[in-house]
Write a structure and sequence with these properties.
It is a single chain. The chain has 153 residues and is an alpha/beta fold. The protein has a single domain, classed as Aldolase class I (TIM Barrel, Alpha-Beta Barrel). The protein contains 7 helices and 6 strands; from the N terminus they run H-E-H-E-H-E-H-E-H-E-E-H-H. The strands form 2 sheets. The protein has a 4-stranded parallel sheet with strand order 1-2-3-4. Strands 5-6 form a two-stranded parallel ribbon. Helix 2 links the parallel strand 1 and strand 2. Helix 4 runs parallel beside helix 5. The longest helix is centred in the middle third of the chain and has 14 residues. The termini are far apart.
Length: 153
């Protein structure tokens, strides 16, 4: 908790795991007290959680008062990617980011925007998570709404 308190003087927002039950409530409180935003995250590097589990993340993030819900999961097949993007499009959490990781999830890094996701990640030198796009390619694609189907930022 001390690390988060120290960081809150230097950052605009923080990202804390929903599963970090011993601190996430305190991080949200301390961040909001200082006017910072909070991303509440759920990561699954082995599979895509069921829709029941995804709905549980939404409920928990709402209860904790997070500003953004981020779900990053590894799809085991194309159906997992489609289901994750569909859940994103129907999610009742106002600000959200749903990302399918790995080779199967490459398209979701952009498709997520069409489904209501508000952010994605790219890399400069090497990816920090499976399926990230090089930042130059990501930026160039985002600037071409005619080819990407995206609204310019």
């Amino acid at each position: 908790m001390g690390l988060f308190r120290a960081a809150l003087t230097e950052v605009d927002g923080v990202d804390v795991e929903l599963a970090a039950v011993e601190i996430n409530r305190h991080v949200v409180f301390e961040a909001h007290k200082r006017g910072r935003f909070v991303i509440l995250s759920a990561h699954d590097f082995k599979r895509t959680p069921s829709n029941v589990a995804l709905a549980g993340f939404v409920r928990k993030a709402k209860k904790l008062g997070g500003d953004v819900l981020k779900v990053a999961a590894k799809p085991l097949g194309r159906k997992d990617v489609d289901r994750l993007m569909d859940f994103c499009s129907r999610s009742s959490f106002r600000r959200r980011a749903f990302i399918a990781m790995g080779p199967l999830g490459l398209a979701s890094r952009l498709e997520g925007f069409r489904q209501g996701s508000l952010l994605t990640y790219g890399y400069i030198r090497r990816p920090l998570a499976p399926g990230q796009w090089p930042i130059k390619r990501l930026a160039a694609t985002l600037k071409k709404p005619a080819t990407s189907g995206l609204v310019p930022l």
